[in-house]
């Protein structure tokens, strides 16, 4: 039987997953990997790592959206191009 998870840790990982548009399992692996690298082993420490990652990704969100908008703008000579997809 699987061990019960800390409620705050699960919520922090789910918010991180939502922010990054990845699965909750992938977000948990990301947090667990970083926590292991930093030597954090307790649930409270992993929750703090997840919250820190969430804050870091929230700051990068607006910059990433602006960069994506810039990259998706059509160039004048390609504005009327229709692909064969």
Could you please describe the fold and organization of this structure?
The chain has 85 residues and is mostly helical. The protein contains three helices and no strands. It has helices at residues 7-20, 24-38, 43-72. Helix 1 (7-20) packs across helix 2 (24-38), helix 1 packs parallel to helix 3 and helix 2 crosses helix 3. The longest helix has 30 residues, at 43-72. It starts with 6 loop residues before the first helix and ends in a 13-residue tail after the last helix.
Summarize the structure.
The chain has 85 residues and is mainly alpha-helical.
Q: What are the SSEs and their pairings?
A:
Layout: H1 7-20, H2 24-38, H3 43-72
Helix pairs in contact: 1-2, 1-3, 2-3
Low-confidence stretches: none
Shape: elongated
What percentage of the residues does DSSP assign to strands (E)? under 5%
The number of distinct β-strands equals 0
Radius of gyration from CA coordinates: 18 Å
Descriptive terms for the model:
single chain, mainly alpha
